[in-house]
Specification:
By secondary structure, this protein is mainly α. The chain is built from 5 helices and 2 strands. Strands 1-2 form a two-stranded antiparallel sheet. The protein is elongated.
């Protein structure tokens, strides 16, 4: 069994978009920058990326990356360089795996708390789009076939 810390969704912002529904805006920007780098990054590298878009303090980026590490979204190690010791960070989950995990947790919560109402709303929403309805039908048929029904 893995001892890796798993990120748990603790809030959901219905007015947010994409990652900002489950992370704060700055956390979303920081983790996007880490994912975009495709290699382990320093706080300085993320800071340089973000300051091109908005006025931001180095220490703000540093504390946000530390918070993402504490939440289990980033991993890190200490390295030694000209200026002394510093952290190098990388994501624990890829972007798509994170999104899938977040959606699964939110859907599980809705189903647990609202059951049939949530299921009915999902079906009604999907039924309004012919392509999504076709995809749902195919997924259901595949699942039923795998279960021998």
């Amino acid at each position: 069994m893995s001892t890796e810390k798993r990120y748990r969704i603790t809030r959901y912002n219905v007015e947010g978009e994409q990652l900002e529904t489950v992370l704060g805006p700055l956390e979303a920007d920081v983790i996007e920058a880490v994912w975009a780098s495709k290699k382990p990054v320093t706080v300085r590298e993320v800071y340089e990326t973000l300051k091109k878009k908005t006025k931001i303090a180095y220490t703000t980026v540093m504390s946000t990356m530390n918070r993402l590490y504490e939440k289990g979204l980033l991993d890190r190690r200490i390295e030694r360089g000209k200026g002394g010791l510093y952290y190098v960070y990388w994501p624990k989950l890829g972007k798509e795996n994170f999104k899938k995990s977040a959606v699964r947790q939110v859907v599980d919560s809705l189903l647990k708390n609202f059951g049939e109402i949530a299921t009915s709303c999902f079906i009604e929403e999907i039924a309004s789009n012919e392509e999504e309805l076709k995809a749902l039908r195919e997924q259901l048929e595949k699942i039923l076939k795998e279960k021998g029904r």
